[in-house]
Amino acid sequence: MNVSDPGPSGGVPSLEDLNAFERARQLLSAVVAAYSARIGVAGVAEAAALRSLRAPLLAEQRTLDPRDRMRVDEIVTKFPALLAQVREGER
What we know:
Number of strands: 0
Radius of gyration: 15 Å
Distance between the termini: 31 Å
Helix content: over 70%
């Protein structure tokens, strides 16, 4: 991703956008890591289910754009709870 490219939203991300984006990336990575840790100790069927939950997050790690502030804010808002759930084995 080239942050100097105005992209589809037409604007270069602000420093605030980039800071929020970095926080979202960190949260995504933490949730992926939590799923991976659970997969490592799960049985075959549970591991497959956990991989299917992790897959869209892996894709989003590659495609998340700092100019998509709505999605970035959604991750920053909702993923701390998701991270706790995954770590506790609730999801």
